[in-house]
Design a protein that fits this description.
The complex is a heterodimer of chains A (337) and B (282). By secondary structure, chain A is of the alpha/beta class. Chain A has helices spanning 60-67, 90-93, 109-112, 119-130, 136-149, 166-178, 196-213, 224-230, 248-253, 258-265; strands at 7-21, 30-44, 49-53, 75-80, 83-84, 102-105, 184-188, 216-221, 233-238, 241-247, 323-324. Chain A is globular. Chain B is mostly helical and 282 residues long. The chains are: A alpha/beta (337), B mainly alpha (282).
Chain lengths: 337, 282
């Protein structure tokens, strides 16, 4: 990394208030909050692709929405290209000059496209609103050029979303985001709603677009193989906390956190049977009112000790390229992967 | 755009013949409303006591009433007034209801709760009695009948628009519009309101029949349009007293006109939904 980071996230948290719950057997109602994102810090250099993985409900979509400035954090800073964007409320961010520079591709393109807009309108809309000084014709030309970049045939431009295939819709969603030439693109599981064969096509497209435009990606996924293929670095989240972060190959070859290891070992593979597999017991703990002094993995982890129940392991070591949040990290350098 | 829209309308009409019937019926009603006074064979106000209560004949197709007026001419001429009241009232409540409902549904908060409670209060009244009271207090002019009908329709539109907008305010395409730099006002006007139009239009069309019945009902009980004016509600009211003496035609024909008009609007609702909903486009 050279110079100051392109994106710097500092101790970002997001909680959602829940209705207070009266304990069984009477007493005062206990205030409750859901800790979706808990004290997450990381930085990202321009042009990097960062994978964000974790199971459903671990807070990765909430974090993605905060990064895309569609939601506000409850605490923490988000510095984008030298400017703290957490200070601008999401409600006013639509008018912010940085809106054009940060775009997002949604998980389900079917949901994310206005059923009343044709493909042309869907792609031209963001260009018209976010790129100043373009005439009507120039907007349409740019929309057509963007459609061509994502390999959408011109004859689809007058179609409505319900007349497109899943892969075509996904490409319209991507075109909407890249038509305004953003610098940071957040991709929230852009392929999870697609058939496997279409997934590969869309992933190749995303990879090509990044190389063409020197885009910075935050790629949210629960598909580790995809992250390994597409990303330079990877962050693993568990119940709102960042538990491991580092270069993709380092993390995949040598996962330090037992949860990361279990995730990697859960990738279905032919042949690799038996040998030292990391397993998790039971279900994740509740993200409601989590204890600040217990490791989130307690109760599921095979390496658990008294210390894990007495303090929350911090993410470290500070300043290292490969960080993890475990008191008793694994060391698996020897294992081929 | 307009070429595609026309093609789409043709497609909807072709696949659903009932819509075609509704459109034709509606066209006939519209024609009667526009040209009724010219098409009427006899003067709807001309009394002739010598020819009172004559049954339908070649001269008086629908017979004559107790003052010898031609029921066919009166029924035809009345179309314009009844339609005018219903269309104006429903348009007023549609526009106001959509605006208030969409705003409160989108922004929520205190205004939403206050408007919600006001709507509850309004709906707690028997609506027809409320309309009666308003017309009685303000005087029974056509304008007041329109306002009264509009106000008693308003709660339905506010609730409906509010619910539909609230349901969609966190939809993917709304987030996506915000990401594209759309302000709240733009999201409401360009994304949410157009998306709730299909359901609102159906509601409006169904409501139209109800508004016609409401206006006729006000006249029926003497709180609406004043007597010499041809209006379906009054005609049914005046004819009702002659039904028992066997002069059924005085009340039947204006009553049938009401039934056919309400029916046409209800059928039209289904067709309109198909036309305004882009998901039905092929």
């Amino acid at each position: 990394m050279t110079g100051e980071p392109f994106v710097e996230v500092h101790r970002l948290s997001r909680t959602f208030a829940l209705p207070a719950l009266r304990p069984p057997g009477g007493g005062r109602p206990v205030p409750r909050h859901l800790q979706a994102v808990d004290d997450v810090s990381f930085s990202l250099a321009r042009g990097q692709a960062l994978g964000l993985v974790g199971e459903s409900g671990c807070g990765k979509t909430t974090l993605a929405h905060i990064l895309a400035r569609l939601a506000d954090p409850t605490a923490g800073g988000l510095v984008f290209d030298g400017r703290d964007l957490a200070a601008v409320p999401a409600a006013r961010f639509a008018r912010d000059p940085a809106r054009r520079r940060i775009q997002m591709v949604f998980q389900d393109a079917t949901e994310a496209l206005n059923p009343r807009d044709t493909v042309l309108e869907a792609i031209a809309g963001p260009i018209r609103l976010l790129v100043p000084g373009l005439r009507g014709r120039e907007v349409a030309e740019r929309a057509a050029a963007t459609a061509a970049r994502v390999n959408l045939p011109p004859e689809l431009m007058t179609r409505f979303p319900h007349q497109l295939s899943g892969g075509q819709r996904a490409r319209v969603g991507i075109a909407r985001a890249i038509g305004v030439e953003p610098e940071l693109l957040i991709l929230d599981e852009p392929t999870s709603a697609l058939d496997v064969s279409i997934q590969a096509v869309v992933l190749k497209l995303l990879d090509r677009l990044r190389r063409e435009s020197a885009l910075t990606y935050v790629f949210v996924s629960h598909d580790l193989n995809v992250v390994r293929m597409l990303c330079d670095r990877v962050m693993v989240m568990y119940l709102g906390r960042l538990i491991e972060e580092g270069p993709v190959e380092a993390v995949f070859r040598n996962p330090r956190h037992p949860y990361t290891a279990a995730l990697i070992d859960a990738i279905p593979r032919l042949g690799a049977r038996g040998a030292a597999r990391e397993r998790l017991a039971g279900e994740p703990r509740s993200p409601v009112n989590p204890s600040p002094t217990v490791c989130r993995l307690v109760g599921r982890c095979a390496h658990e000790q008294a210390r894990c129940r007495a303090a929350m392991p911090p993410l470290g070591p500070e300043g290292a390229g490969h960080r993890h949040a475990c008191f008793f990290p694994l060391g698996r350098d020897e294992e081929p992967c | 755009m307009s070429g595609a829209t026309l093609r789409h309308i043709r497609h909807v009409v072709a696949t659903n013949p009932v819509t075609l019937a509704a459109v034709l019926l509606f066209a006939a009603i519209l024609l009667a409303a526009l040209l009724g006074a010219r098409l009427a064979p006899l003067d709807p106000l001309q009394t002739d006591v010598a020819r009172a209560l004559r049954p339908p004949s070649a001269v008086n197709w629908f017979g004559t009433d107790h003052l010898g007026r031609d029921v066919f001419s009166r029924t035809l001429v009345a179309t314009r007034l009844d339609l005018l009241i219903a269309v104006s009232a429903v348009s007023l409540s549609f526009v106001a209801g959509c605006a208030v409902g969409a705003l409160t549904g989108y922004f929520g908060g205190l205004a939403d709760r206050v408007v919600g409670r006001l709507v509850d209060v309004l709906m707690a009244f028997p609506l027809f009695v409320l309309a009666m009271a308003m017309v009685a207090a303000l005087g029974n002019t056509v304008a007041n009948i329109i306002y009264a009908t509009a106000i008693i329709n308003l709660p339905f539109y506010i609730r409906f628009a509010r619910a539909e907008v609230n349901l969609r305010r966190a939809a993917g395409y709304v987030l996506s519009a915000r990401l594209a730099g759309a302000s709240d006002g733009r999201i409401l006007a360009r994304v949410l309101v157009p998306n709730i139009m299909p359901v609102m239009v159906v509601q409006m069309s169904l409501n139209m029949g109800w508004a016609i019945l409401n206006a006729a009902g006000l006249s029926f009980i003497g709180m609406g349009v004043k007597p010499p004016t041809p209006e379906w509600g009054i005609m049914v009211a005046q004819g009702a007293s002659h039904v028992t003496s066997g002069h059924w035609w005085v009340a039947l024909f204006p009553g049938l006109a009401l039934v056919v008009t309400v029916f046409a609007f209800n059928l039209l609702g289904d067709g309109l939904r198909d036309i305004v909903d882009p998901r039905r486009r092929t």
